[in-house]
Design brief:
The complex is a heterodimer of chains A (108) and B (122). With 108 residues, chain A is mostly beta strands. Chain A contains no helices and eleven strands. The chains are: A mainly beta (108), B mainly beta (122).
């Protein structure tokens, strides 16, 4: 089973700043099948990024994904107060599919 | 518009059985894998398993194999998650979600239900 380790656990930034979230896999993710989800308080998760770097439908271009193999990054440029959420990475290229433990993004 | 509508919250006692549901609308339900994700209180997301409603082919995460049963009825566009004997540790929010590409299992979840809160307490 691939273990995904996200860092940092919590990130506290101000509006307008850039957030960089990391997701490291215990072994290479096949075909870079790595997704990022946003879960706002009290809501279901929402797909942001798939295939490591493709934005899902309706996702603003402030959100971008990069990386390959075992190291992946979600970058949120120009933070807005509404970006307050927990962000999860998920690999879907190997069985069983697995999620990271999440990074909580706080907006100061 | 794609929608996944889940059944309401449940409060059960240990040892009881339970079946929760997820009705899909706005897409070709039989042809997309649909899955379940657990979120225990204050914790992260856990991938439980997926089912292809067209032929009921099912894949489970090893962590959940034998602990739950995933099923679907394509005639009423509904997927199910069931337990035969609940434990207190099954207390969690359960989300259904569909995979993004028709017929493919190697995809992320692109649409999610609103979640069903299951509480197991004596």
């Amino acid at each position: 089973e691939i273990v995904l380790t996200q860092s940092p656990g919590t990130l506290s930034l101000s509006p307008g700043e850039r957030a960089t979230l990391s997701c490291r896999a215990s072994q290479s993710v096949n075909s870079n099948y790595l997704a990022w989800y946003q879960q706002k308080p009290g809501q279901a998760p929402r797909l942001l990024i798939y295939g490591a770097s493709s934005r899902a439908t309706g996702i603003p271009d402030r959100f971008s994904g990069s990386g390959s193999g075992t190291d992946f990054t979600l970058t949120i440029s120009r933070l807005e107060p509404e970006d307050l959420a927990v962000y999860y990475c998920q690999q879907y290229g190997n069985s069983p599919r697995t999620f990271g433990q999440g990074t909580k993004l706080e907006i100061k | 518009e794609v929608q996944l509508v889940q059944s309401g919250p449940e409060v059960k006692k240990p040892g009881e059985s339970l079946k929760i549901s997820c009705e899909g609308a706005g897409y070709n339900f039989p042809n997309y894998w649909i899955g379940w994700v657990r979120q225990m209180p204050g914790k992260g997301l856990e991938w439980m398993g997926i089912i292809y409603p067209g032929d009921s082919d099912t894949r489970y995460s090893p962590s959940f194999q034998g602990q739950v049963t995933i099923s679907a009825d394509k005639s009423i566009r509904t997927a199910y998650l069931q337990w035969s004997s609940l434990k207190a540790s099954d207390t969690a929010m359960y989300y259904c979600a569909k995979l993004a590409k028709q017929g493919s299992t190697w995809d992320p979840f692109d649409y999610w239900g609103q979640g069903t809160l299951v509480t197991v307490s004596s």
